[in-house]
Amino acid sequence: MICPVRYVRRLYHAIGPIAQEAARRHHVPMADRQLDARYLKGPMPVLRAARELRSIAPGTRLRVLATDPRAVVDFRDFCRDAGHALISWSEVKGVFSFTIRAGGAKQEAAAKEAARHDTAR
C-alpha cells in the first residue's frame, strides 16, 4: 500500500509542469488589493468596488470576487463609464473574479471641470 503523503507528492510532481505551462498561457494579473463581494446580489458588488476604487490611487489593481452572474455586464459597463480598465475576468465554480485597474483620467477631468465652473461664478 502506498502512503497517502507520498502519493500526493508523486501526483503533485507529475502534474506540476502541466499546471505551470497552463499558468503561463493563461496568465491572470495579480492585484494590489482584493475585495470579497461574494453572495451579494444586484448592484452591490459594483457599488462596493466603486467605493474601494475611490480610495485607491490611479493605476492600482483591484481584484473583486462575486457570485452574481449579472456582475459580468455590470462591471464591464461600470468600468467603461467610470474610466477604469477591466483588465480581466474569469469564472471558476460559480465565483467570478474581476481584475480592475483604477483610472483617474475621467475623475480628475471632472474635478477640474467642476473647479473651473466654481471659479467662473
Automatic annotation (TrEMBL):
Cross-referenced Gene3D superfamilies: TusA-like domain (3.30.110.40)
Domain UPF0033: 34-101
Pfam families in the record: TusA
InterPro entries, A to Z: TusA-like (IPR001455), TusA-like_sf (IPR036868)
UniProt family annotation: Belongs to the sulfur carrier protein TusA family.
Name of the protein described by the UniProt record: UPF0033 domain-containing protein
Origin species: Acidiphilium multivorum (strain DSM 11245 / JCM 8867 / NBRC 100883 / AIU 301)
Organism classification: Bacteria, Pseudomonadati, Pseudomonadota, Alphaproteobacteria, Acetobacterales
